[in-house]
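User: ok so my PI wants both of these folded by tonight, can you help

Assistant: No problem, let's get them done. Here's the first:
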Amino acid sequence: RMETDCNPMELPNNVGFEEDSDYRDFEGTDVKDMRLEAEAVVNDVLFAVSNMFVSKTLPCAEDVAYINVETRERNRYCLELTEAGLRVVAYDFDQTDDRLQTPYHETVYSLLDSLSPAYREVFGNALLQRLEALKKDTQS
């Protein structure tokens, strides 16, 4: 005989819709996604720039967030973070300029590397220090 009903108890445990963001309840959990991503980006590279924070003026949404960054050279940028990556959308905090057609970067490292030689130097030095520390740990 052919069974047509599905008993939920027979489903494997790894079939869970709640983990998939597309099926989460819509009480605002998704809307925070890009803002959380933006906060993580800021925390990752804040040590290598003069100032960096998620914009409180420009609207964050499920699919976009804006990050203000001031490089060590004192240049200010407003970055747009989307699924496509990060790109410069203005040359000042909390601004967007629709005429700017800047390329997307997959990572904040790549973007800052292209904007700021000082960032590149600080980040590279931090990397070297971590490698030296790892080397010492493995030798002891």
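One down. Here's the second:
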Amino acid sequence: MASSLTCAGVVWAFLSFLCAAASCVGFFMPYWLLGSQLEKSVSFGTFRRCSYPVRDENRQTTVMVEQCGRYASFQAIPSAEWRICTVVTGLGCGLLLLVALTALMGCCVSELISRTVGRVAGGIQFLGG
């Protein structure tokens, strides 16, 4: 296999992939904030939540749904700040994955990544981070 990367570039490619994977896992997991409500453990992230309160109209009480799931719609995310965080974090993870996968392809394909492309990729990673 021919490579367009130096040894430092290969290390950068693999570390980029590991960091992008960790960022995406953190984005998709609902454990950003942990706490308790109605004596139950609750957690939520930007677009997922676990153990959340729901109003039971039959009994006129609030009950806890003890399962994890995403919000039903983008507007169901609790606040504008969390919606912005969801979009920005999702875009950042997408950019990080794009650069990491391109760098990994550079390990296998000769003349795919030049010095200029590497610098631009580093800038994109900075923005994605």
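The longest strand covers residues 61-70. The mean pLDDT is 81. Good luck tonight!
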